[in-house]
Amino acid sequence: MRKIICGILLMVCMVIMMTGCGSKMEKIADFGTYAGSISDITVPDDVKIVALGEATHGNNEFQQLKLDVFQQLVETTDIRAFVLEGDFGGCALINAYIQGGEGELEDITKLLGYRIYKTDHMKNLVQWMRDYNATVEESERVRIYGCDMQFDMRCITLLKSYFENVDAENAKMYVEQFDTLFGTDEDAYDSNDYDKIIAFLDEMKTDLERNKENYIEKTSEHDYAYAMCEVENICYYMEYREKKNYNGNFRDTCMANNVKWVVEQEEKLHQSGIMLSGHNGHITKNISSANTSLGNQLSETFGEAYFAIGTDYYNTECNVPTKDGRKNVTLCSDDPLAYQVGDLDENICYLDFEKARQSQELSSLLDQKISTGSLGESYSPIMKVMKPLCHIYFAPSEMYDGMIFVYEATPIEVWED
Fold it and tell me: Would the pLDDT of 262 be above 50?
């Protein structure tokens, strides 16, 4: 009987822990003293990467922050590159547009790769970068990169164009090989051709290495580096799908390699730092789940030069994919820090952890394991009652150097296809 009672009590405790919204929380008297705005964001001079996370992919506020924070960093630091958790090849094509290239803005924005980026917020980000570049000297221009590797066709398009510029004789052969092995549609290759595809890509790498000086002379060192990285990203894409079974940690390792490549390029060619934008789970300094280690790898490589800013909501109405199409769902994070924003005049605030350490109460909370919201591009109604499925449960100081909190987050509106 005692075992039965203990079992029942344990189940009740688990239900209480996993369900409900807005459990009893205490107010922090001096929270408003340390709560700043986006314009208050500053980073140490030796920082090379400022990473901005998002608690969800489907909220207006977190998409708008991409532009707001990037503008702030461009105005106050030497950061001139924006790196998105988006398609490597697609963002390279967008970069050509923001440097003054041709194209229709909405079509260009869709090259970011994912459905969640087909929004007015992301279109405004691309437009701002293009407009900014039109008003500054070349040395002050901004650039955009993608660090993800889940698409193939845009890298293939770029490589076809590159070889037409550096080796027109072999370009026809490469184009024919690409079309034979990959077709002309996304993900259209035959899995049985895996070995042929890797052998072909290895042959292309050898060609690039053997003719490096000649190819650089015909284009530029940066174009050559891009071509090498494009081949590498198609290899990542193939291994991710065919050998790693879409393993999230492998994906994060590939993204980390791409971010490191961008840092190298920006330092060498522009003496610039970068802003990285991705889901909270990817940019945290610790490993917040078994399949998200991007931020952890970057933190280990760059140390204090990696500065992570997380985000969270208290209440959200979030746009998510369901089996019946995209819908808006409501959730609560139960984050005691985000809860404090409800008493502020604004719906959003920035908390710099170093400054917040001056408050004993805040400092203590930063080092405690607390619930923070975490919702990606997957949703199940069970999340309503099993909160650990859409929460991260770590001490904020283990994950970030600061956080941006939104009290009431509103849903994005994704463009119709």
Answer: yes
DSSP one-letter string for 2-71: HHHHHHHHHHHHHHHHHS-SS------TTHHHHEE-GGG----TT--EEEE--SBSSBHHHHHHHHHHHH
- Is 42 exposed, middle or buried (CB count within 10 Å of its CB: 0-12, 13-18, 19+)? middle
The Cα-based distances of 63 to 254, 330, 352, 414 in angstroms read 24, 18, 20, 12
Cα–Cα distance, 191 to 195 (Å, whole number): 9
Backbone torsions φ then ψ of 45, nearest 5 degrees: -65, -30
pLDDT by residue (tens digit) across 229-246?
Answer: 999 999 999 999 999 999
Count of C-beta atoms within a 10 Å radius of residue 323: 7
DSSP annotation of 240: H
Using alpha carbons, select from 95, 92, 105, 76 the residue that is nearest to residue 133: 95
Residues of the chain with pLDDT > 90, as a percent, come to 85
Strands 325-332 and 143-148: unpaired
CA distance 143 to 166: 24
Instruction: Please work out, in degrees rounded to the nearest 5, the angle formed at the alpha carbon of residue 386 by the alpha carbons of 381 and 391.
Output: 100
Query: Using one digit for the tens of pLDDT, what is the confidence trace for 109-139?
Result: 999 999 999 999 999 999 999 999 999 999 9
